[in-house]
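Data card: per-record layout.
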Amino acid sequence: MSADAIAPADDGRLFPGRPLIGVSIAVIRDGRVLLAQRAAEPMRGVWTLPGGLVEAGERLAEAALRELEEEVGSRAEVVGPSLTPTEILMRDSDGRLRHHYVIHPHAALWRAVEPAPGPEALAVRWAHLDEVAGLATTPGLIDTLREAFFRVSGEKTA
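The structure for this 158-residue chain is written out next.
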């Protein structure tokens, strides 16, 4: 389940008492990255990486691969440890903390199954890095993608 899939308001995601740990996965194939358009709030309609919350007992990379398969049906191979984390803090009009996520992104190489939008994604697309600048995206996405492309290119030449 992604970080804001349709869930009860009392599940701890809205006005949380502590940051929630999430993952995302930058799946790269033929010089393009897999993006999903968010189906749920917050940020419905913006482009981002497949991802969601880490479940108890789950390692970060395992969670990223699970979320990829749940969200768009694809499979990939994670390359190295997680990338630089991204913090998402959103406040309401009164300044109260509405959402606080710490997202641990991963770089990966696509391995199988063409992606398709599921209940958590309005659409999916493969995009070149230079195309992403023209899209509405989640905060910090372009920096995460640059790091992922660098990680994957280093892996291919090693």
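Known properties of this structure: The longest strand covers residues 97-112. The chain has one domain: 20-152.

See the next section for split statistics.
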